[in-house]
Amino acid sequence: MSRKNRPYQFYDTTGAVCSTCLRQIEAKVVIEAERVLLDKWCPVHGMERVLLADDPEWYRLGREVFVKRPEMPEKFSTPMEYGCPYDCGLCPDHMQHSCLTVLEVTDHCNLRCPTCYAASGPERTTHRPLATVIAMLDAAVRNEGEADVVQISGGEPTLHPDFFAILDAARARPIRHLMVNSNGLRIAQDKDFVARLAEYKKGFEIYLQFDSLQREPLLDLRGADLRSVHDKAIENLNAAGISTTLVMTVKRGVNDGEIGAVLDFARQQPCVRGVTLQPVQEAGRCDNFDSRQHRLTVSEVRRRVAEQFPVLTLRDIVPVPCNPDTLAMAYALRQGPELVPLTRYLDYQTLVEGGGNTIAFERDPQLRDKVFSLLSTGHSPESQANCLSDLLCCLPQVAAPSHLGYQDVFRVLIVQFMDAHNLDLRALKKSCVHMVQPDGRMIPFESYNLLYRDERAQTLAKLRSELKAFHQLRLGS
Ligand code: SF4
Ligand code: SF4
Ligand SMILES: [Zn+2]
């Protein structure tokens, strides 16, 4: 008797949420015709199918090779009560500490972007009081012992009336690397502000919104032609020597053909240490967004990088071990605008586990000494706040030599924040980007935007009371 086969390979089961009701539901990961898909079923709202990757080999690399033992935070702040993702956080079932802590200091902004996960704008005017921000910094440090990277965010944080007092407070605490997330307007327009910013530049970085070099994509994503703002902001940051990461929100059919051009622009700017590519997600304000049309997965963005920016090959862009489903990275050494890809010289085991002399430096003898020393020499305490190892916080503990500084590195990160459609609870448990709260909770970025931010908390409260009633019913039976 011959039996019919399903048209796909059944890879795994996982948990997800229904994109309509946000109830936790079952899901399957299947591989069909070179696509990795998440098949979800909600008893109320039926089936939903979402693309996870267009490259099964890439997906399996993250699932089967880039598997490391989870690193714990110092502290868990919430109990396990309702189940994931309703217990953030972090609850004891979370599987990764905070590689990056985001601290939102205001909901006010001088732009009103059609794409803004925080739904900020000029009409919102709440600045968190300095005392609250300090309590949040203390919470970040309490959770981590020494925080790897803290990002001051918003809204537009440079508009906070106590902005520099916040930087001072952050500086006074054990935080290895401090970032400020900014749209660049104030940096472009206020030279005195930039001069003051430059006083903080050791172990400090501007995370600069930079989606495009063209008018139309900027209008689509930001509602304004920001080209001259970008030019002026970069000019001022270059002049002041302030480390900068360009952050590109990538939207299919809008600016995904421009990834190579932005990377090429970035490498020519002395202040720019790299580019972070963030596929657009459904969160906050997402005008002009069609979930079926505009989404991109990590594997699709990775391929565009390799196609549009030949300096990097696919082999140079590898999963980030702490959360390989949603993060990919490529590191290069830079000499001016010239880049020497580094990731290809590291075997996967080194990247996942660290230690051991497993660098494949024999492929390029000229690089041997530099790469070897990069990963094997300790650095002095004085250099600690501004050296390569600080930026490799997602990597295993590899120490970097003090003579190779952050200015010698060019980093490409792909950071996909999952939304209600593609949320995989297995991957969410490994989230390492956490939003610190005034009450001390650390909430994964994705679940925060889905269930904990502003009026979303009402949905969470409703789901929790439903779960409570369900649990009581079970206990009673
Ligand atoms: S995402 Fe993490 S912190 Fe939140 S409920 Fe799930 S395991 Fe707990
Ligand atoms: S995305 Fe950034 S710049 Fe745009 S409205 Fe939101 S906070 Fe402001
Ligand atoms: Zn549903």
What does this structure look like?
This protein is an alpha/beta fold and 477 residues long. It is globular, with a radius of gyration of 22 Å. The strands form three sheets. Strands 5, 7, 8, 9, 10, 11, 13, 14, 15, 16, 17 and 18 form a twelve-stranded mixed β-sheet that branches. Strands 1-2-3-4 form a four-stranded antiparallel β-sheet. A two-stranded antiparallel ribbon has the order 6-12. 31% of the residues lie in helices and 23% in strands. 46% of the residues are buried. The protein contains 16 helices and 18 strands. Bound molecules: iron/sulfur cluster (2 copies) and zinc ion. One iron/sulfur cluster binds next to loops.
Précis, in short:
This protein has 477 residues and is of the alpha/beta class. It has 16 helices and 18 strands. The longest helix has 21 residues, at 456-476.
Largest sheet: 12 strands, mixed
Q: Which geometry do the CA atoms define? A: globular
Determine the number of helices (DSSP H or I, runs of at least 4 residues).
16
Strand-residue proportion = 15-25%
Structural class: alpha/beta
How many angstroms does the end-to-end distance come to? 45 Å
Low-pLDDT segments, ≥5 res? 355-368, 372-402
How many DSSP E strands?
A: 18
Question: What is the overall pLDDT average?
Answer: 89
Rg to the nearest angstrom? Answer: 22 Å
Helix content: 25-40%
Ligand inventory reads: iron/sulfur cluster, zinc ion
